[in-house]
Amino acid sequence: MRVTMTVNGEPATADDVWEGESLLFVLRERLALPGSKNACEQGECGSCTVLLDDVPVCACLVAAGQATGREVVTVEGLAAPPGGDRQGLHPVQQAFIDAGAVQCGFCTPGLIVQAYDLLRRTAGVPADPDIREALAGNLCRCTGYEKILDAVRLAAARMSAARISAARMSAARMAGGAA
Amino acid sequence: MEFLQPRSLAEAIATKAERPDAVPIAGGTDIMVEINFDARRPEALLDLNRVAELASWQHSDGLVRLGAGVTYARVIAELGGLLPGLAMAARTVGSPQIRNRGTVGGNLGAASPAGDCHPVLLAAGATVEAASARGTRLIPAAEFFTGPKRSVLAPDELITAVLIPAAPGPQQFAKIGTRNAMVIAVCAFALELRPPKGGGAGTGDSGGSPPWAKTVGTGIGSAGPTPLRAIQAEEFLAGALAEAGLWDTADRLPDQIAQRFAELAAAAARPIDDVRGTAAYRRRALSVLARRTLAWAWDTYRTGDGAPECG
């Protein structure tokens, strides 16, 4: 069957999709987006986490047909698109690099999508139990998680600093306009 | 394989009548695992994600009608006041990603003895609503399960909703597992206290107490071929509380009552040895869970803390 959806803001079509195929398989094998990783295929490890209509899900547990007409965002879609206003990696991605949260890297895309979802819903730096709860469905066999928690805190601090600075600039612009 | 994607409940029911072999898929957290592992090759998948009627809940006259397609994440976010026990159980399901997709209807459909919702639905005296082209029927949760992963659901039927009384009093749920996420229960226990008057959303404002007043509900998970009620434990506790006047005084609960309740709860289980635990461990753990949940629920009853909100 044919499956049409929006992936990372662009229309995407996959043909000859088997009816029992997962969204993960379509993304990796048919749409050339290998960022989402295929590990456990049973929702245990979180390596295939993507946003489906803005909600984090395990792409291995979504039947491809269920994604028809839906919006999917993968780890590839978090970095700034070429030529846009925003440059480079998303702050969550950059923080994972800077904090040393990436070892073998296999779990990293899923953790980044899940951490991204947590941080866009949180003002400031989330409490540790909230970070642990949000990442409870993402397994990492290398890091022991400490550096991952560091990365999430670092990203949260940077994102909230950026928000404050953007708010200040906008306030200054408005004050300037009023003068 | 075929992929059937009805757009309305009427269409879904008609499709299931034509294709009773079609396997319903909602959150996919069970069926996709089986397909990914080549454990199952259904002739057709019946996707219920587009059926808007399944994805809502309503509350009236003390009864919550929970659409079969409402996710655990929504139960937690929206129903913690009306159905605190179910919300507690939902919080223990899988991970955030799983809770964003998995549904209470799917939990029932899979009918695993370890399903996290089942003990709560038994304790609350919930009813499963099943629909087919032949009509709609209501099945008490206690009669729904017939064996491991088996239920009374007919091949042409779809689970459309679960009818759950809004908590008439304190509810508790506890589950044993190796960590706080991503575990299939080693065993689980749910408890509901139904006080004589006031406090509950389901009490109504009539002068007399409702017929279920001064009763107790229980549910045991993952310690038998199906989820089970501990009926003797329920009757003992309700009787002991009444005899000692404790429903009215809300005094401290005597240890002997909690102890006996725990023994009877454990005795109601029919556990087996398997990869997650031994029968003996499950029985022992259930008595601990029964005593703990009773202590927590009684504490809520005494202090009024966390009393269910009227929605």
Give the SSE layout.
The complex is a heterodimer of chains A (179) and B (311).
Chain A: E1 3-7, E2 10-14, H1 23-30, E3 49-52, E4 55-58, E5 71-73, H2 91-98, H3 108-120, H4 128-134, H5 146-178
Parallel strand pairs in A: 1-5
Antiparallel strand pairs in A: 1-2, 3-4, 3-5
Helix pairs in contact in A: 2-5
Chain B: E1 2-4, H1 9-18, E2 22-25, H2 31-36, E3 44-47, E4 57-60, E5 63-67, H3 72-78, H4 84-91, H5 96-101, H6 104-110, H7 118-123, E6 127-132, E7 135-140, H8 141-144, E8 145-147, E9 150-151, E10 158-165, E11 171-176, E12 187-194, E13 215-221, H9 231-243, H10 246-249, H11 255-268, H12 279-303
Parallel strand pairs in B: 1-3, 2-3
Antiparallel strand pairs in B: 4-5, 5-10, 6-7, 6-10, 8-9, 11-12, 12-13
Helix pairs in contact in B: 3-4, 9-11, 11-12
Structural summary, described in words:
- The complex is a heterodimer of chains A (179) and B (311).
- With 179 residues, chain A is α+β, with helices and mostly antiparallel strands.
- Chain A is built from 5 helices and 5 strands.
- Chain A folds into 2 domains: 75 residues, Roll (Ubiquitin-like (UB roll)); 88 residues, Orthogonal Bundle (DNA polymerase, domain 1), CATH 1.10.150.
- Chain A has a 5-stranded mixed sheet, sandwiched between helices.
- In chain A, helix 2 packs across helix 5.
- Chain A is globular, with a radius of gyration of 18 Å.
- Chain B is built from 12 helices and 13 strands.
- A 5-stranded antiparallel sheet of chain B has the order 4-5-10-6-7.
- In chain B, helix 3 packs across helix 4 and helix 11 crosses helix 12.
- The interface between A and B is medium-sized, with 28 and 30 residues.
Short description:
The complex is a heterodimer of chains A (179) and B (311). By secondary structure, chain A is of the alpha+beta class.
CATH-derived topology of the domain at 171-303 in chain B: Enolase-like, domain 1
Rg of chain A? 18 Å
Beta strands of chain A, count: 5
Report low-confidence residues of chain B grouped into runs of 5 or more.
199-206, 307-311
Order of helices and strands of chain B: EHEHEEEHHHHHEEHEEEEEEHHHH
Strand adjacency order, main sheet of chain B: 4-5-10-6-7
Number of domains of chain A: 2
The named CATH superfamily of the domain at 171-303 in chain B: CO dehydrogenase flavoprotein, C-terminal domain
- What would you call the structural class of chain B? alpha+beta
> Which CATH architecture of the domain at 171-303 in chain B is right?
2-Layer Sandwich
The oligomerization state is heterodimer
